[in-house]
Structure formats: structure tokens, C-alpha cells
Design a protein that fits this description.
- By secondary structure, the chain is α/β, with parallel strands linked by helices.
- The protein has four domains: 114 residues, Phosphorylase Kinase, domain 1; 198 residues, Transferase(Phosphotransferase) domain 1 (Transferase(Phosphotransferase), domain 1, Orthogonal Bundle); 145 residues, no CATH class; 159 residues, Leucine-rich repeat, LRR (right-handed beta-alpha superhelix).
- It has 19 helices and 32 strands.
- β1 and β2 form a beta hairpin.
- α4 packs antiparallel against α6 and α6 crosses α9.
- The protein starts with 14 loop residues before the first helix and ends in a 24-residue tail after the last strand.
């Protein structure tokens, strides 16, 4: 980019000056071929298109002779908000450099002081065009598009850019040497988080396209990367079935469906076409309405897509007949070539041109240690019947301060997570890996081990893992064919890892035998349980008094557990949508060591006042959060007075009403009454306060868990 343009100037132009000078300038399509623009750096080749606020031209660089796309605001546009959004698009495109995202190569001001941006020039058709032409795409085609596309989005998220308008018409497909190259375009309404965590858009702004908007977008909540994951899930759903998951009579009804209607399965939406468990599971988890329970990162989506792509688990019910080798493999390649040919034909027929960002390479986070690890060789016992079998047991070795994890090269154990220098690292648990023995590894157990055979987990030795996450899956018993709730058997498998410090159970059905194995995990310090339907046996577990962090989601019968928590050991407690009565509150009040406390439950005013009364004894409290709805005029002073007596530094008020009905007057009074302390009001979908209690957001080491 040229140094003579100050990026800050793009958002500070005077509207009056702009209107006066632009009124006499040429309209977008009035630029003639051959005109020089941007101080003579670019020559207009042709007009490409015009929207409500901007026009796009094909231009030639005078110096390099290369073709580019130049986008500028229309001459009649003068609203400051439009300028700022265009500046934000430039900011997003400028900071992103990935082989599947449109790269901005220059920006500045035209002679009439309208801002412009120069981007890569790419020809192709949209995914929307492909779906209209073909109906649903094949599994191979979908994977060839969504694997690099998801990698591109993951990269954007790491750069703190949330797209907010992912839809088929913003996904370009380019044919090159018979391959399909997808490119994500149009960051015009992207949300960019600053280093301080503030954003360039307000929660009240509604952006997106209703067919693909996340539930939190539909109610104007502040969105994060998980909103993009939901939108990507909608597009993936449409690519596989030929139709989006929800389509109402009008935009409002569509948004209401995103908020409340059950997501159809892929099979239901495609009128009986069979899809594998992995496809159904992936899409369902991307389309969970509560972002806290949705797949949390594009890295995880990418990992699942690659697992399907690599065939590490047999796809016995894949969208297309299984492709193995020889003639079948040629058929699979033929489908990709067919789509590539359609793209070429469409280009010739329509001469449609697009510009985009590009990302075709997949980045994998390296292990903390680079070592030469032995290869396992080809799996001689690979047998497709009833799923995959390992040719040898997974095993680990520690030598010279290095922990070697010999994962099979052609199998997938899940996702390894660890924190390094304040950043969460993710790596597929596949192929031999090595780490310093001091690395605290968390394993998100892969679906293969859940569906088919948990025995390879027995290869872990005590000390290899510091944390384990087991999530809900269902699988068909190999002999009876009956659908079985999984995961209690996994608990028995990892019971030998008695030094585990962190356990995350997501919708795991605990049978009576599971508690015996749980009780062997005496070193647990971090426990998260979501809809696990535990009974009174959990309170008897030996690790309960030693817990440092407890996160219960949608749980009943929590009182016995609260009664056994240590007043001094526990420092973080989150009861999210749990059954908590006034009789349970004294057990919370005795937890004098608490530093973070959140209670998400719809309660009346009297309950809240008693809750705050118990919190007065929590002298170490730094973070506090609870739900609040309508505040009657006579209740404001009482609430504010009670909060002033507490010791917290940060307060997050969760608005229990989706319409944001907490009175503005009360908000202003509360902020004033708690001057010097941070007060945040959030609605459903906001990552707070859940992020306080997430090992994906907070290094457990900083909380004394390890």
C-alpha cells in the first residue's frame, strides 16, 4: 500500500465538503475506459457493477500492468456511518492475508475525496449460483469448498475479525486447473474487536441476511466468532440439502424460526437422503441456538470436516456412495471436475466477475517441541466392517523431559488443547506428537473413540493429560443395532488417570457405575457438567471439597454438592440455568474464597435480594453476575444499596428478557452508584459471564488449577 495515504483520513472527512465536491463529480459508471484515477496510479478498464452505496471497476495498475478491482463509495453518499463502515471494510481486508480471503492491495482518497479500496480481481460464480444450478452438492464438492473456507474463517477470527454476513452469495467459487477454489468476500459489515475488547459496532445494530443470521444476531446482541459458526452451519446445511434450515414467509418470521424452531436434520430437509452420523452431528452442533453450547471455534469445525474428508471413520451412510479407489475414486474426482466445468461455463455465459480474499492452505499449530518421532507404518489391520480398528495400542513415552504421544497416523483421537504464553493452542490428536512434560494438555475426545472403541484411551498414562472433555454422542451398538447413550464407558476408561485436574462432561448420561470411577479422580480441581442428570452420589465424590472451579449448566439437585464445597478452596462458581432455591443460598454465602460468582436463573426480586445478602460475606469477590428483568421503581434503590455493600470489581447484569427491558434509568443509576467499578449489561448470546469459566478463554494455570 502506498505510504502517501493516511488510513485515518478515510473516517474523518467533512460531510459538507464531501457533498459539495462530490455533487459535481462523475457518477460511478460514468468513469470512462482509459480514465486515470487515484493520482494516476490506476487506469479504468471497465465498469463492473453498482450497489446502493458503492461502485466497482476493473482497473489496471499503471506501474505493474496487473488487473485489480477498485471499489469506491458512490458520489451521492455522504452519511458518516456509511463512511465508517467502508473504512471498517478496508481495515478488515487490509489486516487479512490468507489464500482464500480478498486481499486489499491499496486504499486512499480519489480526487473528489471519496475513499477507495483496491482488491484482488478474481472471476468466478457464487456458491448461491452453484446451488441454484445444481441443487444440493455432493459430499466431495462440499468438502472441497468448506475445508479451505473454514480455514480462512478461522484465520480471520484469530485476527479478531468477525464477518457477520456469511451466506452463499458471499462465497465465490473459482475454477483453476480443474480444482474448485472458494473465496469468502464482502467484509463490509464485519465486526472488528480492538485490543481492549471494544468494538466498532453497537449491540443495537442489526446486520446480516435473515436466512443465515444467528439467533443472537436476530435480537441485536453483540456477536462473536460463534455467530459466524452458526451462519457457516446454515450455508453448509444448504449446500448439503439444497435449502437453508429456516425460511419463513418474511424476514421477521425467518428470524423468529432461528430463535425458537427446532433445526431439521439433513435427512429431513433433503426428503430422506441418508447422511452419516458425522455430517448430522457436525451441522447440528454448528446450529445450536445458545452460543455457549455451540461449537466454539472454526478450528473445531475444520477438524471435524477433515475427519470426514480423510475417512478416518468409515462413512457408512455418506451423502454419496463411498469412494475408495480405482473406478469409484475416478467418479469422485469426476464430480469435482463437473462442478469446476459448470463454473467455467457459467463464466463464459454470464461473464460474471467477482473479487475476494483467498485461503487454500491449511495451517496446523505445531507441537511445542519439534522432534523426530517414529512412524507407525501402514495399518495392516484396517478393517471397515463395523468401523475402524487400530493395528496397535496407542502408547506414550516420557524421556529426557519430553512426552511423546504416539497417536496412529491414520486415526483421530480428538483435539489437544494447551495454553502457551497466554494463548490457547489447538492441535489434532493424530500422528506422533511431542511436548515438554510441563505442558498441561487437555483432550477433547474425538467421535471415533465415542462411537466405536474407547479402549485406545487406555494407552494414556497417568500424568499424560491434565484435562479431558467428553461430549454427548449416540451410537448404534454393533451387535443389537440399538441406539445407546455413550460416554459413561469413557469415564471408566480414563479412571486410571487419577491425576486429572480438569473434567468437562457435556450431556453425559451417568449410569450408577460411573460414580465409582469418578471417585478415583481425586485430583480434580475444575469440573464442568452440562445436562448430565447426576444424582446424589456426585456430592459424595472425594474431589468435591477440593474443587477450585465448578460450572453447572442445566442441572437439578445441586444443593448436596453446594453443601460439600470448601469455603476456602472454591474460587469460581457458575450456576447456569440450574434449579437453585432460597434454601440453597446460605451454602453459597459460606464460600468465602470465591473470586468469581455467576448465577443465571430467572428469579424474583426477593430472591435476588437474598442472594446479594449472602454475597456480603464474600470479601474476596472480584467478579459477580446475575440475571435481572423488570425493575420496579421502588426496587432500584434497594438493589443499588445492596450492591454497594459488596466487594466486587466487575458486575455483569444478564438481561433475562430478550427485548432488553431493564430500564435505562436504572442502568444509569446503577453505574453512577457503583462509580469506580465496571458495570456491564448483556443479553443472551454475549460471551460474558460464560467466558470467566471457560478453559478456552482463561488459562486454568492462572487460576491455580494445575
Amino acid at each position: 500500500m502506498r505510504d502517501d495515504h493516511d488510513f485515518g483520513k478515510l473516517g474523518s472527512a467533512n460531510d459538507t465538503r464531501l457533498s459539495e465536491r462530490a455533487a459535481s463529480s462523475l457518477e460511478g459508471e460514468s468513469f470512462r475506459a482509459g480514465d486515470l484515477v487515484a493520482e494516476g496510479h490506476y487506469r479504468i478498464v471497465k465498469f463492473l457493477g453498482r450497489g446502493a452505496i458503492g461502485s466497482v471497476f476493473c482497473v489496471e495498475s499503471v506501474s505493474s500492468k496487473g488487473l485489480f478491482a477498485l471499489k469506491t463509495l458512490n458520489a451521492t453518499v455522504s452519511a458518516e456511518t456509511t463512511w465508517r463502515r467502508f473504512q471498517k471494510e478496508i481495515d478488515a481486508a487490509s489486516r487479512l492475508d490468507h489464500p482464500n480471503l480478498v486481499k486489499a492491495v491499496d486504499f486512499g482518497l480519489l480526487e473528489d475525496e471519496r475513499p477507495f479500496m483496491v482488491m484482488e480481481f478474481v472471476e468466478g460464480i457464487t456458491l448461491a449460483d452453484a446451488i441454484r444450478s445444481r441443487g444440493r452438492l455432493s459430499a466431495d464438492e462440499v468438502l472441497s469448498i468448506f475445508v479451505p473456507l473454514t480455514d480462512a474463517l478461522a484465520y480471520a477470527h484469530r485476527e479478531k475479525v468477525v464477518h457477520r454476513d456469511i451466506k452463499p452469495s458471499n462465497i465465490m467459487l473459482q475454477s483453476k486447473d480443474g480444482a474448485i477454489i472458494p473465496k469468502l468476500v464482502d467484509f463490509g459489515i464485519a465486526r472488528i474487536a480492538s485490543e481492549s475488547g471494544s468494538t466498532l459496532t453497537q449491540a443495537a445494530d442489526v446486520f446480516g441476511t435473515p436466512l443465515y443470521m444467528s439467533p443472537e444476531q436476530c435480537v441485536s446482541a453483540i456477536v462473536d466468532r460463534r455467530s459466524d459458526i452458526y451462519s457457516l452451519g446454515c450455508v453448509l446445511f444448504e449446500a448439503l440439502t439444497g435449502a437453508p434450515p429456516f425460511s419463513g414467509d418474511n424476514p421477521l418470521s425467518t428470524m423468529m424460526q432461528h430463535r425458537s424452531d427446532k433445526v431439521p436434520t439433513l435427512s429431513e430437509a433433503s426428503l430422506g437422503v441418508e447422511f452419516s452420523r458425522k455430517w448430522e452431528s457436525l451441522v447440528a452442533k454448528m446450529l445450536v441456538k445458545d452460543p455457549a453450547h455451540r461449537i466454539q471455534s472454526c478450528e473445531e469445525v475444520l477438524s471435524r470436516l477433515k475427519q470426514i474428508q480423510s475417512g478416518s471413520v468409515e462413512e457408512s451412510h455418506s451423502v454419496l456412495p463411498k469412494i475408495s479407489s480405482g473406478e469409484d475414486g475416478a467418479k469422485g474426482q469426476g464430480k469435482l471436475v463437473l462442478l469446476a466445468s459448470i463454473i467455467c461455463i457459467a463464466l463464459i455465459a454470464l461473464t460474471t466477475t467477482f473479487f475476494m480474499v483467498s485461503n487454500s492452505t491449511t495451517k496446523v499449530t505445531p507441537s511445542p517441541v519439534s522432534v523426530n518421532t517414529p512412524t507407525t507404518g501402514k495399518d495392516e489391520a484396517f478393517a471397515p466392517a463395523f468401523g475402524v480398528k487400530f493395528d496397535k495400542s496407542f502408547h506414550t513415552i516420557v524421556e529426557h523431559g519430553i512426552r511423546h504421544l504416539y497417536f496412529p497416523s491414520d486415526q483421530y483421537f480428538g483435539i489437544l488443547m494447551w495454553w502457551d504464553k497466554g494463548k490457547l493452542q489447538l492441535l489434532n490428536a493424530k500422528k506422533p506428537q511431542a511436548f515438554p512434560v510441563t505442558t498441561k494438555l487437555i483432550l477433547d475426545v474425538g467421535e471415533y473413540l465415542i462411537y466405536e472403541d474407547s479402549m485406545p484411551l487406555a494407552g494414556f498414562k497417568d500424568g499424560d493429560l491434565s484435562g479431558v472433555r467428553i461430549k454427548e454422542e449416540k451410537y448404534a451398538d454393533r451387535i443389537s443395532g440399538n441406539i445407546i447413550d455413550t460416554n459413561s464407558h469413557l469415564i471408566s476408561t480414563i479412571a486410571s488417570l487419577s491425576s486429572l485436574s480438569l473434567l468437562d462432561l457435556d450431556k453425559v448420561k451417568l449410569d450408577p457405575s460411573a460414580y465409582r470411577f469418578l471417585n478415583q479422580m481425586t485430583q480434580l480441581r475444575w469440573l464442568r457438567m452440562n445436562e448430565c442428570a447426576f444424582n446424589g452420589e456426585l456430592a459424595k465424590m472425594s474431589f468435591i471439597p477440593n474443587l477450585r472451579l465448578l460450572n453447572f449448566l442445566s442441572q437439578k439437585n445441586v444443593k448436596p454438592v453446594l453443601a460439600r464445597l470448601s469455603p476456602t478452596n472454591l474460587h469460581s462458581l457458575f450456576l447456569d440455568n440450574c434449579e437453585v432455591s432460597e434454601a440453597d443460598l446460605p451454602y453459597i454465602g459460606k464460600l468465602h474464597g470465591l473470586k468469581a460468582l455467576a448465577l443465571r436463573a430467572i428469579q424474583n426480586h426477593n430472591f435476588i435480594m437474598k442472594f446479594l445478602s449472602q454475597a456480603k460475606s464474600l470479601h474476596h469477590l472480584e467478579k459477580l453476575s446475575f440475571c435481572l428483568g423488570n425493575v420496579e421503581p421502588g426496587q432500584s434503590k434497594e438493589l443499588i444499596s445492596a450492591l454497594q455493600k459488596l466487594s466486587f470489581k466487575t458486575l455483569v447484569i444478564m438481561d433475562e428478557n430478550s427485548d432488553g427491558s431493564i430500564p435505562e434509568e436504572f442502568k444509569a443509576e446503577l453505574v453512577k452508584g457503583l462509580k469506580g467499578r465496571e458495570v456491564i449489561f448483556v443479553s443472551e448470546g454475549n460471551p460474558l459471564p460464560s467466558s470467566w469459566f471457560s478453559y478456552r478463554e482463561v488459562d486454568p494455570g492462572t487460576l491455580g488449577i494445575w
